[in-house]
Design a protein that fits this description.
By secondary structure, the chain is α+β, with helices and mostly antiparallel strands. The chain folds into two domains: 2-69, Arc Repressor Mutant, subunit A (Orthogonal Bundle); 123-255, START domain (Alpha-D-Glucose-1,6-Bisphosphate, Chain A, domain 4), CATH 3.30.530. The protein is 39% helix and 25% strand. It has eleven helices and nine strands. Strand 4 and strand 5 (166-171) form a beta hairpin. Helix 8 (145-151) crosses helix 11. The longest helix has 21 residues, at 87-107. The relative contact order is 0.13.
């Protein structure tokens, strides 16, 4: 976590994260343009620090390299130092701060965004996390119903995990998601269509796609979840639950314990 704190200590790097929060999936050129006279090389050095800390991840799209905000390291800091008793107070105060600042910005003709509802550029959200485990154990935790329910808001997932097969996730007798397993290549790659069903508003957004990529790195695995084909009006209700889900997955595999985060069922937004 030292690398995360170091990365966040610099104002320019915080500004780059703010920019990616405002509009995710930007090129180096787009990120560097508002920061003149800083050179592209200077911006690239800051982005490299953010990538090394896991706060920014990149994806190739054609000939372009896109940069995405990865909120999971910040979520892990929150889970470590914000107790289950303090979180409701912290959440209330930060929401109040955001609301008051948003009202102030509105009066001065600035554009503002509520916490957790930042729009994204294009149709993609990317989340990356390192977990000290093997690809086989990680694949099992993703596809095993008993393990999946422990970090995915209690959702029971059913599927035979073959290419072309269907899957569904439900909790408390209510179906939450359903889709098709498009690509199944254990223990490295799982591509699924994703239809959210937990509310009329997300159901109306239609079918999206989720890709799980597992890459061994030393004695750990890099897990990248790409939620794409998102509609233009998508917000955090559709994809914002991934940081909590993946943090819970990491906690389960590394400690054998469940991530005890208050309000997790209230924010069951993905998975």
């Amino acid at each position: 976590m030292e690398a995360v704190f170091k990365a966040l200590a610099d104002g320019t790097r915080r500004a780059l994260l703010d920019e990616l929060f405002r509009a995710d999936g930007q090129t180096l050129t787009a990120l560097a343009a508002p920061r003149e006279p800083m050179t592209r090389f200077g911006v690239m050095k800051h982005l490299r620090v953010l990538e090394d800390a896991g706060l920014v991840t990149t994806r190739k799209r054609g000939r372009e390299k896109l940069h995405f905000l990865n909120p999971i390291p910040i979520r892990l800091i929150h889970d470590r130092w914000v107790s289950k008793y303090a979180e409701p107070w912290a959440a209330t105060l930060t929401e109040l701060k955001t609301r008051l600042e948003a009202e102030d910005m509105t009066t001065t003709n600035h554009v503002s965004f509520a916490a957790g509802t930042a729009p994204i550029a294009g149709d993609t959200a990317v989340f990356e996390i390192f977990i000290k485990t093997t690809p086989e154990r990680l694949w099992e935790a993703i596809t095993d119903p008993a393990q999946r329910s422990r970090y995915s808001f209690g959702a029971q997932i059913t599927s035979d995990w073959t290419a072309g097969s269907d899957y569904a996730a439900a909790a408390g007798g209510f179906e939450l998601t359903r889709g098709t397993n498009v690509v199944v290549e254990p223990p490295r790659l799982l591509v699924q269509t994703f239809q959210a069903l937990w509310g009329d508003d997300v159901r109306a957004l239609g079918e999206t796609r989720v890709t799980w990529e597992i890459e061994p790195v030393g004695t750990s695995c890099r897990l990248t979840v790409v939620h794409d084909r998102l509609p233009a009006d998508a917000n955090a209700q559709l994809y914002g639950g991934w940081p909590m889900i993946l943090s819970g997955l990491k906690t389960l595999l590394e400690t054998g314990e469940d991530l005890d985060t208050p309000g997790s069922l209230r924010h069951a937004d993905a998975g």
